[in-house]
Design a protein that fits this description.
A: about 110 residues, mainly beta, six-stranded mixed sheet, 10 strands, globular, B: about 120 residues, seven-stranded mixed sheet, 11 strands, about 0% helix
């Protein structure tokens, strides 16, 4: 099974800041990497798919990059609704494993 | 507008069985990959199972042999039959469409809570 490791597990920032979250796969997954944002009590929301493609309706302040085993999600100009938990997920092969999550908190 | 609605959650004793359903509008379960994902209280997301358009299914090691994913094409619904339930199966269970084009999981239900407790 492919293991997904996110870092950091938590970070704090202020509205307007930029942050970057990293996700590493235990083996090559090409660009089959998704990013989600989950707000408390809600279902995950797809932000980025295929490592760098912005899902329809998602603001352009979200940017995904990477290929192979190393991926990043950058959020520019943080908005209040961005303070949530972020997950990466590999879409290469089942089991379609998730990273353990990164909790983004307001500083 | 696409909407996925899960149902069937509740409180069940360890060793019991429960059947979850997902009724998507705007998504044909027969022609899409459909997935179950769960989230234990205060924990991260855990992928559980997928059923492909061909009917082939895959499971996480934690539920293999106990859970069965299926679909009812006539009702356009997705199901998850859960047996031999354990305390550690307590979670919110989400259905989602995916992997879709681009290997994404793009539509999600609101989740249904399963509590396994004596």
């Amino acid at each position: 099974d492919i293991q997904m490791t996110q870092s950091p597990s938590s970070l704090s920032a202020s509205v307007g800041d930029s942050v970057t979250i990293t996700c590493r796969a235990s083996q090559n997954i090409n660009t089959f990497l998704n990013w989600y944002r989950q707000q408390p009590g809600k279902a995950p929301k797809l932000l980025i798919y295929a490592a760098s493609s912005l899902e329809t309706g998602v603001p352009s302040r979200f940017r995904g990059r990477g290929f192979g085993t190393d991926f990043t999600l950058t959020i520019n100009s943080l908005q209040p609704e961005d303070f949530a938990t972020y997950y990466c997920q590999q879409g290469d092969s089942p089991p379609y494993t998730f990273g353990q999550g990164t909790r983004l908190e307001i500083k | 507008e696409v909407q996925l609605v899960e149902s069937g959650g509740g409180v069940i004793h360890p060793g019991g069985s429960l059947r979850l359903s997902c009724s998507p509008s705007g998504v044909n379960v027969r022609s899409n990959y459909m997935t179950w994902v769960r989230q234990a209280p205060g924990k991260g997301l855990e992928w559980v199972s997928v059923i492909e358009p061909t009917g082939r299914a895959f499971y996480s090691d934690s539920v293999k042999g106990r859970f069965t994913i299926s679909r009812d094409n006539s009702k356009n619904s997705l199901n998850l039959q859960m047996t031999s339930l354990r305390v550690e199966d307590t979670a919110v269970y989400y259905c989602a469409r995916g992997p879709a084009a681009g290997r994404k999981f793009d539509y999600w239900g609101q989740g249904t809570l399963v509590i396994v407790s004596s």
